[in-house]
């Protein structure tokens, strides 16, 4: 008879019981370290080919701008509103509304942005990937994204995760009574995590990024590994509101926020919702990237009670800021300044502050209908009261809540759009008409651009300028190379190389070739500009260079840069015309061509041949200027030519 084999469960292979009957237990190929672990100092070239087109499942022909334009934004808003107000048993909503959770999700998606290298931000939907999806500060946001899955599934490729995550936060504010400043779609999803330096630490909440007294390493903008900004318990868990204010100011500054914007974001964001610290933090399971497969992409599974709802643990802090946690009002500041505070601990053992001597007990509603609570605050909330600058700002808002609403609307808009670049990249019907300074605005093009003949003329003028190829190329390189793809800032558009700070950067050789090229620019382009002389087709460099001569007349202000001595001069004669700008004529030509000019140490005197008369001295007292000015009549705008 053939030999009967034992059941597979009884098969053993040496010491590897219950393993494969052939090889026993083996490590999976994906387990353990790789080349980067063997040679950690090896140059990582993966940053040069992040998110390659071949890895995009949408294909090279996919046009997200065209797809998102087909969305009915009002219908999308209603769909998100329905999700926000429909509590799910697998993750019950505090106060029956997921709005505060969605605000936190959007905030933490955008809040990774940092100014030093433009990395981070909401673009690309990076919160879906490691390490951000597993940062301690992002605990429970895996549930927020899972709640939005029905919306994402409905709209598919028309709506990116990056846009959905942030727009949900915007909708949450509107849903709870706050009027936002606007919203721009246009964030295209990426399909793998960015290669970003988030810090040298190898453990969560490590803080090896500091040196000296409290010097935070560049380009980082968070105080500890795995946090968005600051530790809500205070620096390294030290519940000192004044010390926390130092961290708040520095980290928010590195995210491009000033003191007013910082205070507005904290006050506005903490007007809604609560933190979660119902029980011991050691009962919370691993983050999504470390969680077992059966949790299907979710993490932080808690074994405390039900692990959800009233038993939820996220940060370990148990704070409800206001008595109206799903409504926009001024109650955060009213409570912050309405009580004195004492240091206490949450049920999870985290530091927080509670209204002193039992004041206000029972005035704060429980999220699931339990007994009323006492007012509570974070250590970082009290920073707004004890720091003299934040205190002055927030006390004014206590009396002028309409100013808080305006500042929070603009600060929130900046927070969720700061990494998107120029406003021209914003899409959709909710983009506000107002352009803000932080968006690096440039004048809109409302005129004809140069044609082939004008380009040829410009080329000949540039080649005749006397500047070398090296000087011209290096300046063009310097202007364009300031662009960075991370937050779409910099570049040649706007001609900002002639302005501070770029004009003073050491790498741009500010006192050498750059200055020579900038001084040449006003001379180039006269002939190709509009007949009214507004210099729109080729913009002259106004600048703030010491060589600028300011000539005032007819209520207008003209700026002309000084330039090297040349054999060719530009004659621009202005003839008066009623009811409008003076008409121009003139061209480049050698020599004075009938122009008579004089100078003295009190200013500039000019006579435009027989066409005009001597101009009075200009307000440049004590500054000798050698040069000529050609003008039609006294008091009209004049143009200067300076050797």
TrEMBL record:
GO cellular component term, pick one: cytosol
Cofactor: heme b
InterPro entries documented for this protein: Catalase_peroxidase, Haem_peroxidase, Haem_peroxidase_sf, Peroxidases_AS, Peroxidases_heam-ligand_BS
Domain Plant heme peroxidase family profile intervals: 141-415
GO biological process, alphabetically ordered: cellular response to hydrogen peroxide; hydrogen peroxide catabolic process
Sorted UniProt keywords: Heme, Hydrogen peroxide, Iron, Metal-binding, Oxidoreductase, Peroxidase
Protein name: Catalase-peroxidase
Species: Mycobacterium tuberculosis
């Amino acid at each position: 008879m053939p030999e009967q084999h034992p059941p597979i469960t009884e098969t053993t292979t040496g010491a590897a019981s219950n393993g494969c009957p052939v090889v026993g237990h083996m490590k999976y190929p994906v387990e353990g370290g790789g080349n980067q672990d063997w040679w950690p100092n090896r140059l990582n070239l993966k940053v040069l080919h992040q998110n390659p087109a071949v890895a995009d499942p949408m294909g090279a022909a996919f046009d997200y701008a065209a797809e998102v334009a087909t969305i009915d934004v009002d219908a999308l808003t209603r769909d998100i509103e329905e999700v926000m107000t429909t509590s799910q048993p697998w993750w019950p909503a505090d106060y029956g509304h997921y709005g505060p959770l969605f605000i936190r999700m959007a905030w933490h998606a955008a809040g990774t942005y940092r100014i030093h290298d433009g990395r981070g931000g909401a673009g690309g939907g990076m919160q879906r990937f490691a390490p951000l999806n597993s940062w301690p500060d992002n605990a429970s946001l895996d549930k927020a994204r899972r709640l939005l899955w029905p919306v994402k599934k409905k709209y598919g490729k028309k709506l990116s995760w990056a846009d959905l995550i942030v727009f949900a936060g915007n909708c949450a504010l509107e849903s709870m009574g706050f009027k936002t400043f606007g919203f721009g779609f246009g964030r295209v999803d990426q399909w793998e995590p960015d290669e970003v330096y988030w810090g040298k630490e190898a453990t969560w909440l490590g803080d090896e990024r500091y040196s000296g007294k409290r010097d935070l390493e560049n380009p980082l903008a968070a105080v500890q590994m795995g946090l968005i900004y600051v530790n809500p318990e205070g620096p390294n868990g030290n519940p000192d509101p004044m010390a926390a204010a130092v961290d708040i100011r520095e980290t928010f500054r590195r995210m491009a926020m000033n003191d007013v914007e910082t205070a507005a974001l904290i006050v506005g964001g903490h007007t809604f919702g609560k933190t979660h610290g119902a029980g011991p933090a050691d009962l919370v399971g691993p983050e999504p990237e470390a969680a077992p497969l059966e949790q299907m992409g979710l993490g932080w599974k808690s074994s405390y009670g039900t692990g959800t709802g009233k038993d939820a643990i996220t940060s370990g802090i148990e704070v409800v800021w206001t008595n109206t946690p799903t409504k926009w009002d001024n109650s955060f500041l009213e409570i912050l300044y309405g009580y004195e505070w004492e240091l206490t601990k949450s049920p999870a053992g985290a530091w927080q502050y509670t209204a002193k001597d039992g004041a206000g007990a029972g005035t704060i509603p429980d999220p699931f209908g339990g007994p009323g609570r006492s007012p509570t605050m974070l250590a970082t909330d009290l920073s707004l009261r004890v720091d003299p600058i934040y205190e002055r700002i927030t006390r004014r808002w206590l009396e002028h809540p309409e100013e808080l609403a305006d500042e929070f609307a603009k600060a929130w808009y900046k927070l969720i759009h700061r990494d998107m670049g120029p406003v021209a990249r914003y899409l959709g019907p909710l983009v506000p008409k107002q352009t803000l300074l932080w968006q690096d605005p440039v004048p809109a093009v409302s005129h004809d651009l140069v044609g082939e003949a004008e380009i040829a003329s410009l080329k000949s003028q540039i080649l005749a300028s006397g500047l070398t190829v090296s000087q011209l190329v290096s300046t063009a390189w310097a202007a364009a190379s300031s662009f960075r793809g991370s937050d779409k800032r910099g570049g040649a558009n706007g001609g900002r190389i002639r302005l501070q700070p770029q004009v003073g950067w050491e790498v741009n050789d500010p006192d050498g070739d750059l200055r020579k090229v900038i001084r040449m620019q006003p001379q180039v382009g006269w002939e190709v500009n509009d007949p009214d002389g507004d210099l729109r087709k080729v913009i002259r460099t106004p600048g703030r260079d010491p060589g600028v001569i300011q000539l005032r007349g007819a209520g207008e202000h003209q700026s002309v840069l000084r330039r090297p001595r040349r054999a060719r001069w530009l004659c621009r004669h202005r003839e008066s015309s009623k009811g409008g700008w003076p008409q121009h004529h003139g061209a480049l030509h050698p020599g004075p061509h009938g122009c008579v000019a004089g100078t003295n140490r009190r200013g500039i005197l000019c006579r435009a041949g027989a066409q005009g008369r001597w101009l009075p001295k200009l307000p440049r007292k004590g500054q000798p200027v050698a040069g000529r000015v050609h003008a039609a009549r006294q008091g009209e705008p004049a143009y200067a030519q300076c050797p």
